[in-house]
Write a structure and sequence with these properties.
Oligomer: single chain
CATH topology of the largest domain: Transferase(Phosphotransferase), domain 1
Structural class: alpha+beta
Distance between the termini: 58 Å
Number of helices: 18
Radius of gyration: 26 Å
CATH architecture of the largest domain: Orthogonal Bundle
CATH superfamily of the largest domain: Transferase(Phosphotransferase) domain 1
Number of strands: 22
Helix content: 25-40%
Amino acid sequence: MSSCFTISISLSFFFFFIQIFSSEAAPEYLYHDCPNTTLFTSNSTYQSNLNALLSSLSSYATNSTDGFANATAGQNPPDRAYGLFLCRGDLDTAACSDCVATGKQGILQRCPNQQVSVIWYAECMLRYSNQPTFSVMERDPSAILYNTGNITDSTRFTQLLGENLNDVATRASTGGSGKKVAVAQADFTSLQKLYTLAQCTPDLTASDCDTCLHYGIGNLVSGKQGGRVLTPSCNVRYELYPFYNTSALPAPVPPPPASAPVIEPKGVVLLFLACCFWRRKVTKTYEVVQEDQTGVNEITDAESLRYDLATIQAATDNFSDQNKLGEGGFGEVFQGRLPNGQQIAVKRLSQSSGQGAEEFKNEVVLVAKLQHRNLVRLLGFCLEGEEKLLVYEFVPNKSLDYFLFDPEKSRQLDWSRRYKIVCGIARGMLYLHEDSRLRIIHRDLKASNILLDSEMIPKISDFGMARIFGVDQTQENTNKIVGTFGYMSPEYAMHGQFSVKSDVYSFGVLLLELVSGKKNSFFYQADGGEDFASYAWKNWRDGTPLEVLDPAIEDSYSRNEVLRCLHISLLCVQEDPMDRPTMANIVLMLSSYSVTLAQPQQPAFFLRSRTERSTKDLESDQSTSRSMAVSINEMSVSEVDPR
């Protein structure tokens, strides 16, 4: 009798568990992006077309069987509106329609007067633009969300996750004419399953879908209990609980185990309850860590990126002075234009740079594997005779120092824009330190090495100084100090010790510059030798932190964000590297106010080091006021080893 009662209770909990996942609820808002660069006026033709477009999409959703539709409204291209929606693959028509209707209202509320916008819910994505969207693979803008809980057995979990994500990406991209969606389940522990999902808009080719999904996979935050990457064309997600209707999207049936384990009814009840509470817990612990990041674009064959010398010579008018953008420790940088009209920046390594062909190839492999929205992107290379050339994307808005330290141009960097730049730099550095397959220390992070694209999105440049670490290494020593004084950590400048925490120190100085609008060297010249960090610390200690603030942004800043940035910067410039946060912690601090920050101590003061080393060794800041100011500082690059 007791046995029958137990089974009865188990079945009751089973149906209760099913109801939790099947009960209707309002769509769960995740994120939106409206770049605020293209606006339409009220009562304009575009607004009329947009309203018609959104109404059409909402209507299509009520009859959609595959959870996807594309539409246009208007005849004349300047005012024509394009849009589409994509519902999660397991949703029925009613749930999809409800999400699209919610998105129609939500996107207009969150992005008023915007010609280009996208909004994501857990159940669907809705986007519109003044440019064609159908069959166009776009990874930008994107958002990364992750569960704050950590995985204990990270090595095994990472391997299992990678296998399952690659599996669903392959199956989703080859989904044929129907839905481009796939899911997978795998046992992580005896009580925990790993659930993964990959989905593309059905209008993409298999190749574009695969590229988009692997971009998303490459940008998932590692070591977490759940995460997802959202883009306008695809999304990937993993959890330790079933976040989709498993009966609507059945995973491939795994081979039967040698002996199936017998689960007692009580175990079923406990497992269901654990899943219920786990689901409620994790859905509240997600943090958005980046609003628009394109990321890994896997390049395995550097030879496929080769340009012939004649093409580069023609593009740069044979390296004419008129096309020269700047000069660094390894050589010159030129602007160019390829026959297809694409603008490029060419780094021409000087013969006196001391870098041989093998070192050059290492740099090519390094930069080719480090593809991320907040890093300058390598397009190709040329190696002919004595010429060694690297071809980069052309970044039109020059470098950060060009704007930040100019009294007039700095007004273009309001606080909102500066905060986005801070977050972008932090994400790029996090990728270098932890999320790429290599562990990279930049060693010359500074304002002139931060380039700004047409939307003022920051891109970290100059990896000529990057020393690639081995698998188990966290710190190295060097007898050759290369970098820019003022950004270098005390242990690096005085003792030649560098680690990821050396970059954190540089980030802290750069963050102070973004808040204050002043070069770190300003304080040596103006305050009788007081260094930048000490100036900020004294104001923080004395309760006058906003004295540091750039007057150019006094009317536009968020007090909480400014104070948080100052707090983070002071933690970054602590004397003991162990007291500095990691870039992962910094990204979390910037994205979540729920994270409690430690109290900073007085930062290091090491002015004496300025006279202990020669200017040639300490400074090679060849920043330029023109676009793509890639300064290349002299140092050797160690051999590339995959992590």
